[in-house]
Amino acid sequence: MDPRRPLFLSLLLFFSFASVAHATGVFHVRHKYLDRKRAIADLRAHDSRRHGRILSAVDIPIGGVGLPTDTGLYYAEIGIGTPSKKYYVQVDTGSDILWVNCVTCTRCPKKSDIGIELTLYDPKGSNSASLVSCDDNFCTSMYGGEMQGCSQGTPCQYRVLYGDGSSTAGLFVTDFVQYNQVSGNHQTTPANESVSFGCSAEQSGDLGSSNEALDGIFGFGQSNSSMISQLAAAGKVRKVFAHCLDTVKGGGIFAIGNVVEPKVKTTPLIPNMSHYNVNLKAIEVGGAFLQLPTDLFETGDQKGTIIDSGTTLSYLPEAAYKQLMNAIFSYQPNLSFRTIQDFLCFQYIGSVDDGFPDIVFHFQNSLSLNVYPHDYLFQNEDDVYCVGWQNGGVQSKGGKDVFLLGDLVLSNKLVLYDLENQDIGWTEYNCSSSIQIKDDKTGAIYIVDAHKISPAGRLEVGMSILVVLLTIMICYLNC
Ligand SMILES: *[C@@H]1O[C@H](CO)[C@@H](O)[C@H](O)[C@H]1NC(C)=O
Ligand SMILES: *[C@@H]1O[C@H](CO)[C@@H](O)[C@H](O)[C@H]1NC(C)=O
Ligand SMILES: *[C@@H]1O[C@H](CO)[C@@H](O)[C@H](O)[C@H]1NC(C)=O
Ligand SMILES: *[C@@H]1O[C@H](CO)[C@@H](O)[C@H](O)[C@H]1NC(C)=O
Ligand SMILES: *[C@@H]1O[C@H](CO)[C@@H](O)[C@H](O)[C@H]1NC(C)=O
């Protein structure tokens, strides 16, 4: 096991993510809300909630396959700048900003083994680019106030630390981001909005290697700095999005808007968490419940179970992991195990779905998540399977571990994040098919199809591609 992983997962439990705090309202405009220190963006969001007339749905083309034996990730295609250029960015619900590699980056990957063509963003090459200054509203609301030593024209810097130990740093810029607005059945028209995002000049950890290199990361977190929050604040979209990640064919569906088909059952998000956390109540293996202490599901500052599309596998506290593994392998007592690249693997002849139990995670509000043997056991070579469950094995100060459910369990399901109602839900779904989204502008219901962005080359990797893209911290200068 990568020795960094337990360390950084444990960091998750210690940081309070307090870096993103309240906006301070630096706009000097007269308005009745000024006294209450409301930023302009808030007013626009307020208005659009009332009128709902300019809201629309967005269809984001995605590619990639979440299997550890394939790309291990999903990525989206977006356009940035004037004239617009294409960028491929990893979609990640565990982090809060969009960033792309900048032309000033000297150690950024130049080529990608995934076969996509990498593009460095050049603010000077875009007519519509501008630098975010440290006293701009975006910067001050990001860091909960003006930074020390901030004077007009000083750039707004950032460093993001991710859960797998990688990090990136750079400057925030504002430019037009182009996306596909859903305009009819199977049909989109280009739209754009001015968005603030990171222009990264420095990478470390896996982000610097060309293995699974992409142009950047597309954070779909709840914080005001994410692109969905900025689009919502500009009155362009509702704060509702969905993904359906396909491990069978690759790609899938990633859309912003009010999904009306399929219908999903939901569970509440735990309030005030920096990630998408939900209340896991019980785990069932082949019809029998694991006997777990209920306080195992509570993890101190990071309450509940984190749902994260930017993480390849799924991580459980040691006590849950051990019971789960015992329960699974009680179905096959005669297997002999070996370790392949840190994974627990075994030989098995026949269909794993016939020989191993289904696993059901039970959440608050009776929402359940079924995980089948072919989801949690992935085939490494003929007749050799490896286990996707990982032993988090990390203790916080309070002696508690973290549950983190990644693509291993989220794939092949339509997962809906309704940030307006603060809940999340899912249903099993064919992610190569289509969904229906209601256009709030017209009331029309449109069909949105699956996409698969096909990279030119074919990926040859072992099982090395595992990402844990939860933001641990976003900070201004030193962290
Ligand atoms: C984020 O934006 C919302 C609505 O636009 C606003 O109510 C809230 O105070 C903002 N939060 C921060 C931390 O800036
Ligand atoms: C933004 O969209 C408008 C309206 O469709 C279009 O006229 C303009 O060229 C677009 N600008 C950019 C930078 O994409
Ligand atoms: C969440 O945070 C807000 C503002 O900090 C606070 O008013 C509210 O009570 C918190 N909610 C919970 C459930 O902790
Ligand atoms: C495991 O091996 C024992 C002894 O060889 C045998 O009796 C049993 O049927 C085997 N179980 C399975 C599930 O193959
Ligand atoms: C999933 O949907 C696609 C497109 O409609 C279809 O071709 C495929 O057969 C479906 N797969 C399954 C397993 O139903």
UniProtKB/TrEMBL annotation:
Q: Any signal peptide, and if so, which residues?
A: 1-23
What sections of the protein cross the membrane?
461-478
Query: GO BP, one example?
Result: proteolysis
Which InterPro entries does this chain map to? Answer: Aspartic_peptidase_A1, Pepsin-like_plant, PEPTIDASE_A1, Peptidase_aspartic_dom_sf, TAXi_C, TAXi_N
**Taxonomy, superkingdom:** Eukaryota
Q: Which GO terms of the molecular function aspect are on file?
A: aspartic-type endopeptidase activity
Q: List the active site.
A: D92, D308
Which keywords are on file for this protein? Aspartyl protease, Disulfide bond, Glycoprotein, Hydrolase, Membrane, Protease, Signal, Transmembrane, Transmembrane helix
Ranges where the Peptidase A1 domain occurs: 74-427
Detail the disulphide connectivity of this chain as listed in its UniProt entry: C345-C386
Q: Which family does it belong to?
A: Belongs to the peptidase A1 family.
In Swiss-Prot or TrEMBL terms, this protein is called Aspartic proteinase 39-like
Organism per entry: Phoenix dactylifera (Date palm)
The lineage, from the top, is:
Eukaryota, Viridiplantae, Streptophyta, Embryophyta, Tracheophyta
Q: Which gene encodes it?
A: LOC103714185
